[in-house]
Amino acid sequence: MRAPIITFIACGLAFAATAALASGPGTPDAKHLQPDAPRTITVSEADTPPVVRAGLLQSTLILLPAEEKVANVFAGDTVDWVFDGGHVASRFISIKPKIAGSTTDVHIVSDHGNEYTLQLREVSGDDDPHFDSKIFVAPGDKAAKDKLAEMPVFVPAAELDKVKQEAAVAQAAEAISLKAEKTQEEAYRSQYPASLHFDYAWDKSKGKNLGLQEIWRDDKFTYLRGQFQETPALYEVKDKKPSLINFDFSNGLYTVPKELDNGYLAIGKQKVEFHRTAEAR
Length: 281
Fold this sequence. Notes:
The protein has helices spanning 142-147, 157-191, 204-210, and strands spanning 5-8, 34-36, 39-43, 51-54, 60-63, 70-75, 81-84, 92-97, 103-110, 115-122, 130-132, 134-139, 200-202, 212-217, 222-226, 233-238, 241-244, 248-250, 253-256, 262-267, 270-276. It is α+β, with helices and mostly antiparallel strands. Residues 1-22 form the signal peptide.
């Protein structure tokens, strides 16, 4: 018995080139063969592999369940039989015998890990001229049926190459995006110091007693930094009317989400007023 040969669907599952059989004495006439209606066969590990009736130089299409694709195929006779799965991963395998009366077996492994073994027999010498034109394969074991609902465990070579190419494209796009973000960030950092304005005035003596050290702003925020024994309340003054405002405070730094013109810090009776200088407005 010939040793099984592993074939990948991505490579076409072409075990042998299709060859024309020379006619001669004793060779059955393939023209009288008639395709039978499609049928479904159930494959179970505990049962004898079902028989597929193949016609001389006729193609029989084997279809796995819709949820599966062919990952590998092992065949006993790759000389007298042609096996073809196409050039992309699919659920289809075409078989064709080249020698009258020949037999072999085929073992199919799906991408879900299911295994299907079939017996192939060329029937041109039989009294019945019909051969199987299309065979639907169905798993007969519960474990095999359960696998259909799970994720594939094998990735056909063609799909793996596609995934690798897509991953490479995604990585290249991400690298370009990161580079653009880094360039933008560096440009912002280089320009940021020019957007800082230290144009506030306050009573330095009162500020020192309260703990206030500096006040500045950029184009969006106002900042107040100090070393405070107790966190002062921060007020904005508009039209000579004070009002509490929203701010973030962390490690002695006030961050106010707006540009303040006038305001003050207060703890109890202590109060430090500040305002933007007239030149800055």
